[in-house]
């Protein structure tokens, strides 16, 4: 693919993620919380698909920079976290886990939806040239949603996976370790996914999983 086409497709996917992928992820959190009895997100205007309500400038810029710098091969960013009050949720810590899991689950659904036409195109290779930019856009959209899903399921605070993990651990163990992990979780994530640069332990763990799910979805 020419560099100009790669750049255009990358810009389009970044825009789609900011306008669709990230908002749906946060809306899923807000909707799950609302259905389980917590109206905090609704009170703050977050029970909406309006992308501007969920936009985080730093996370959005980082997504754009990472996608464009990698030539459309990788993207990393985030939206504004959805406010949730666990004390209002039904089913206690299991309710918190459901709310946390709703976000990554929405990204899996988006990836699966985009994989349907992508799979059809791959089953008919003669269509690849005919659809033009649609092909790389679909590929990158599926990949970014899978990255967002799997990364968020890493069981380290502040990621969604930590709340899912805490729901199934012994309460005493959670009481002992949750404050420590929440205090140092961000540092742990940086060390896990950015060191050593290019070959981090975290990347070597999650990218084979992402690749396996991608192949399962598109039949490649």
Task: Describe what you observe in this structure.
This protein has 220 residues and is an all-alpha fold. The chain is 73% helix and 0% strand. The chain is built from 10 helices and no strands. The longest helix has 33 residues, at 3-35.
Highlighted features:
220 residues, mainly alpha, globular, 10 helices, 0% strand
List the helices and strands and how they pair.
Blueprint: H1 3-35, H2 40-43, H3 51-54, H4 57-69, H5 92-123, H6 127-131, H7 134-152, H8 160-168, H9 171-194, H10 201-218
Helix pairs in contact: 1-4, 1-5, 1-7, 5-7, 5-8, 7-10
Could you tell me how far the N terminus lies from the C terminus, measured between alpha carbons in angstroms?
19 Å
Shape: globular
Q: Topology as H/E string? A: HHHHHHHHHH
Query: What's the total helix number?
Result: 10
The largest pleated sheet is described as: none
Short characterization:
It contains ten helices and no strands. The mean pLDDT is 92.
């Amino acid at each position: 693919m020419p560099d100009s086409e790669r750049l255009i497709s990358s810009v389009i996917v970044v825009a789609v993620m900011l306008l669709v992928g990230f908002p749906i992820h946060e809306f899923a959190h807000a909707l799950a919380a609302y259905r389980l009895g917590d109206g905090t997100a609704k009170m703050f205007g977050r029970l909406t698909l309006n992308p501007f309500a969920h936009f985080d400038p730093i996370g959005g810029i980082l997504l754009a920079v990472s996608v464009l710098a990698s030539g459309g091969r990788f993207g990393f960013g985030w939206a504004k976290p959805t406010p949730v009050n666990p004390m209002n949720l039904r089913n206690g810590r299991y309710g918190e886990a459901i709310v946390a899991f709703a976000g990554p689950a929405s990204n899996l659904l988006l990836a699966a939806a985009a994989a349907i036409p992508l799979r059809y195109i791959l089953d008919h290779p003669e269509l690849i040239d005919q659809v033009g930019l649609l092909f790389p856009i679909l590929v990158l959209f599926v990949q970014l949603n899978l990255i967002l899903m799997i990364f968020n399921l890493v069981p380290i605070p502040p990621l969604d996976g930590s709340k899912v993990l805490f729901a199934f651990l012994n309460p005493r163990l959670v009481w002992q370790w949750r404050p420590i992990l929440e205090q140092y979780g961000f540092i742990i994530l940086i060390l896990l996914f950015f060191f050593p640069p290019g070959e981090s332990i975290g990347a070597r763990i999650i990218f084979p999983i992402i690749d396996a799910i991608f192949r399962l979805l598109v039949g490649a």
